[in-house]
Amino acid sequence: MDLSVLVLITSFVVLIALSVPIAYSIGISTILTMLFTISSGPAVTTVAQRVATGIDSFALLAIPFFILSGLLMGRGGIARRLIDFAKALVGMFPGGLAYVNVVACMFFGAISGSAVAATSAIGGFMIPIMNKEGYDKNFNTAVTVTASTTGLLIPPSNVLIVYSLASGGVSIAALFIAGYLPGILVGIGLIIVAAILAGMKKYPVGESQNFIASLKRLIDAIPSLFLIVIVIGGIIAGLFTATEASAVAVIYSLLLSVLIYREVKWADLPGILIKTVETTAIVMFLIGTSTAMSWILSYENIPQDISKFLIALTDSKIIILLMINLILLVVGTFMDMTPAILIFTPIFLPVVTQLGVTPLQFGIVMVLNLSIGLTTPPVGSVLFVGCGIGNTSIMSLTRALVPFYIIMIIALLLVTFIPWISLYLPQLFGF
User: Is the bond preceding 339 in cis, omega lying within 30 degrees of 0?
Assistant: First the structure.
């Protein structure tokens, strides 16, 4: 192994083991690697240039807008209305509150584009209610944690924008549309698991509602759900790009939360804007440092070497895709989604394209795969948020998550080996 590659891997692993924040770990290990490649002065300058280049993209302008839109929707009473609507849809079945939890997380995750936000908003409502009704708290938290990740597949999704950048320009609109069926597939799988466990543990039957009450809750939820129609409908119709759609989403969210629902006060806006800036800065710093690491990986020909190694190891498409998925599942346990996508897309995309997998399908596979990592120890961000809201331990919650992990991995394999799931809707709409 080349010395510079050894320095990159060793320094990164050591920094992660020392609990250094992921963005700093990526940046420092990249600089150390460059010191073995070029002299010290150009090394720091080159990293700075790559960081700046990495965030100099028109497509990335959508990220702060979608973050702001998600924060406005999260504070604007959206979660409560979506939960009420989900109760009208599926709340009357045995273990119905679990189904309500999954459906509400899918809706809210799609609107906010954030798994952490969905866990906080929906979990904050649903977990106490389910606890009161006699559901096990670890089961309740496991349902919330896994269901919240569906919003990373169902658009608008910031991580799909990041993948578009890492892949060299796969259409964001096509990625958005491609995420629908896989996201719904995962949601259905989680409902099936929840139904089986609810039946085994004899959880209570939810309240049935008459037609008038159900209709009222649908009407209350329509303005929130209409955000998805505006964003995706506008993109499909060619009215605006994904980046322009993000600005439209902010305007709509502002009108809905401040003027229609009136649950966000004008005095709240400065705090929301500050939170948007903080979150955007973290995301952009991750993107910048990850781009620098991707550059040094390319400079050292690591993607090409890995591609040659995998293809020389076996000519079986199934085995290679299984190996890539296994590697990404391991990576997802200790690395955040954004740097993982930026670093590993250039490594694995050339391999899968040689196998006949389209960049569009592989993007969905990567996001679904790494979404599982958000719910796994030791560094799953959604897992930690869920533990805090559910008032449980990581060990207890992880045991409860095992059946949900299994169904998510089954969904991952289906999306990996059945291209139709990801490609049908984009082809239908001409992408």
Answer: no
